[in-house]
Amino acid sequence: MVKRIEKDRSRFRQILRGQIKKELRKYITRGEMIGKKGKDLVSIPVPQINLPRFRYGGKNTGGVGQGEGDIGTPIGRDGDEEGTGQAGEAPGEHLLEVDVSLEELAQLLGEELELPNIEPKGKKNIISEKDRYTGIAKSGPESLRHFKRTYKQALKRQIISGTYNPEDPIIVPFREDRRYRTWKTVSLPEASAVIIYMMDVSGSMGEEQKEIVRIESFWIDTWLHYQYKNLETRYLIHDAVAREVDEETFYHTRESGGTIISSAYKLAGNIIDEDYNPQDWNIYLMHFSDGDNWGEIDTDECIQIIENKLLPVANLFCYGQVESPYGSGQFIRDLEDYFESEEKLILSEIPDKEAIYKSIKDFLGKGK
């Protein structure tokens, strides 16, 4: 009986996983779930899925089929109330919020977008082995005995056999009641990585553009945290000048000045020089802008910094251009013309939230 219950729960979990994967594209383009992110879990709304279970009647109401009755008499308990409200033709929506680990979410993202695992570089690219508990078995070493599962199994057995006394609730586990944790050994990369996010916060970048950046950054973070044990994140914002800020400021600051993109690239280069030796660190640069820049002179300087300072040390340099009614959108075209065959430079146009899905695949699809 217990085996069957565990099997059913495992099957339910697989159904749930399939449901999340089926709707993952929709979740990727929505920002509400990011607000429900905890340290290791994120809450996801899924259609209601119920496990089969027994429903018991109230006490002292008689057994099934007792008493007189006519054909068509409704069966129910006394005191059942009639429903209120008008009838409707649309079905009700029943949603269940389930907690999914960020690791499992990253696995689903990788499967859905067919992302290859990253091949880290650097001297810190060491693989360590770790034992991870994965299930429950009837045999094993006493050091891995699962006391709660053992107690529950003994309690079930005594209730079924009729030997359980609520007045004297002593539970004595037998040998067959014992349950033990099982494990498997997994390999974990210990390479260190840093993501440096850069975002244009000039007057042409509105709240809608920042929301797109926020959603896409969440999924990129989730994937890279899954790939690397040690991951650091730095945030830079810029208009005509660049400065480093915390995560909260990064997503909620709005300036009204002009745009000099090279200021962010110079600051990113300085941070790498001071804190992240490319021999030891996997470096990811993510820049989001609406493509408006202050003149061709600064664009030429940006190209020189990317080519001579940033690309030689980075795993990837990703530039995402978020469409804005106020931005010219010229910058991505200038980069395309100059870096036509550069594999480390990934360019992606993001006109709206629906394009986030493709943009993530563009950025992470090469496994670098």
Give an overview in words:
The protein has 368 residues and is an alpha/beta fold. The chain has 3 domains: 1-52 and 94-114, no CATH class; 129-187, no CATH class; 191-364, Rossmann fold, CATH 3.40.50. Helix content is 35%, strand content 21%. It has 10 helices and 10 strands. A 6-stranded mixed β-sheet has the order 7-6-5-8-9-10, sandwiched between helices. A two-stranded antiparallel ribbon has the order 1-2. Strands 3-4 form a two-stranded antiparallel ribbon. Helix 3 (102-113) packs across helix 5 (207-227), helix 5 runs parallel beside helix 10 and helix 7 (262-275) packs parallel to helix 8. It is elongated. Residues 46-51 and 87-96 have low confidence and may be disordered.
Proper CATH architecture of the largest domain: 3-Layer(aba) Sandwich
User: What is the N-to-C order of secondary-structure elements (H for helix, E for strand)?
Assistant: HHEEHEHEEHEEHHEHEHEH
What is the topology, as strand order, of the major beta sheet? 7-6-5-8-9-10
Helix content: 25-40%
Tertiary shape: elongated
> What is the fourth-level CATH superfamily of the largest domain?
von Willebrand factor, type A domain
CATH fold name of the largest domain: Rossmann fold
What's the CATH C level of the largest domain?
Alpha Beta
* Proportion in β-strands: 15-25%
The number of distinct structural domains comes to: 3
Q: What's the gyration radius in Å? A: 29 Å
> How many β-strand runs?
10
Low-pLDDT ranges: 46-51, 87-96
Give the averaged pLDDT, no decimals.
77
Largest sheet: 6 strands, mixed
Number of helices: 10
Please identify the structural class as seen in this structure: alpha/beta
N-end to C-end Cα span: 48 Å
